[in-house]
Amino acid sequence: MCLAAPSQITHIEEGGFMAEVESFGNKRRVALIMVPTAKVGDYVLVHAGYAIQILDEEEAKESLRLWEEILCSQNS
Amino acid sequence: MLSEQLKRFREPQLAKETIVKVKKSLQALQTYQGHKAIFMEFCGTHTAAFSRTGLRQELKEYVTLLSGPGCPVCVTSAQDVDRIIAFSQIPQAIIATFGDMVKVRGSEMTLQEAKACGSDVRIVYSSLEALEIARENRERPVIFIAVGFETTTPTAALTLTKAIEEGIDNLFLYSLHKATAPALKALLHSELTTTDKRSTNIDGIILPGHVAIITGRKCWDFVVQESKIQATISGFEALDLLLALEDLTQGIMNQHDQVGNAYGRAVSEAGNIVAQQAMEQIFELQGGDWRGLGSIPQSSYKLKKEYAAHDAEKAFTLPALPESKGSSCQCGDILKGIKTPLQCPLFAKSCDPVHPQGPCMVSHEGTCATYYKYERKL
């Protein structure tokens, strides 16, 4: 029920309420009002027709970097 | 590119290496605690993710992963389903609902069966589609069955706000939205912590990642600070789940005083403020019935008085509802993590996804449906 699909914003409609997003090759219209700072090219999580969050690229990088560090120390 | 990084959270090789590390940590935790750890995943999407990725099986010698009450369809009471069916029998009414709800049995029938008897029931993916149906059918009442936790609640609030702005007065909400934190509190203070200590007591909680996007991380600190149980917010990819298990394990051994956040790319400290404001604008918290958990104070999002004109419960008078019947369905105990589906006498016998007896078998993310698909011994 609480599934949310990562999707990339391809077009923001006039007024900013709706946007077109692409997820795994599928395009669809979603409401953008919950993430007012989102811009074209951003990745958002979409739930029940609404983008609910902009994914933070730096945080994603940081999680992966932390893991690689942990695994490196384990393997060495 | 972010998309490349997101793919890495599913990368098999990285996950394999990580599993080795997590197993070592869980072994250390077992030594530290003197027993194998018991973790509960609150959220049904996590239940499905642990089974789908094979992690529940892979790690079963190292950690017992119990499912919690985090499937909004599953915790909807039979009486509430009866009300939905009664709404569907109002002349000219159109019911707009998420797909899972049509298969949940009330005291006598499902919404699907009501549809077969002539009710106009339409499955929607978003409340915005319900608004569209209302725009196209201005002469008919359109009742949106608003189900879900905080992830979904603000979407219904914002759709209703838009309907009001547009003057669409034939859209009604039957709000069954529920708040997750009061349920977790109730669960942690129920028999789980008072009965036989080690058979049911949980050592750590994996908190719902998409609910936390809305609520933020810090509002969950009560779990650690009041209930004295470690907890970590998790994402839904294989690597996210492993990261959360590691964080939870370290949290217990190092006695962290805050809830961990292993889903930093999506969950912030304070959450989504626009969503929180939208919920506060439209809804207020009241007591609510949860299947399996009973009545929980301040756990149910109901429309505020000023929105009574769009509140299906206020706008329509329903006939007397059927009396609920007893059943040997174990959904109640399964939702509390006391039993697994394998301990229910109906599981995979008279209850399966085609003929579900209880709601945990109905929803794709219900614990029983997940176990039926992934964990059943054939």
UniProtKB/TrEMBL annotation, chain A:
Pfam families: HupF_HypC. InterPro entries: Hydrogenase_HupF/HypC (IPR001109). GO terms for molecular function: carbon dioxide binding; iron ion binding. One of its GO terms (biological process) is protein maturation. Coiled coil: none annotated. It comes from the Bacteria. Belongs to the HupF/HypC family. This is HypC/HybG/HupF family hydrogenase formation chaperone. It comes from Heliorestis acidaminivorans.
Automatic annotation (TrEMBL), chain B:
GO terms for molecular function: 4 iron, 4 sulfur cluster binding; carbon monoxide binding; iron ion binding. One of its GO terms (biological process) is protein maturation. Keywords: Iron, Metal-binding. The keyword Protein biosynthesis does not apply. Transmembrane segments: none annotated. InterPro entries: Hyd_form_HypD, HypD_1, HypD_2_sf. Belongs to the HypD family. This is Hydrogenase formation protein HypD. The lineage of its organism: Bacteria, Bacillati, Bacillota, Clostridia, Eubacteriales. The gene is hypD.
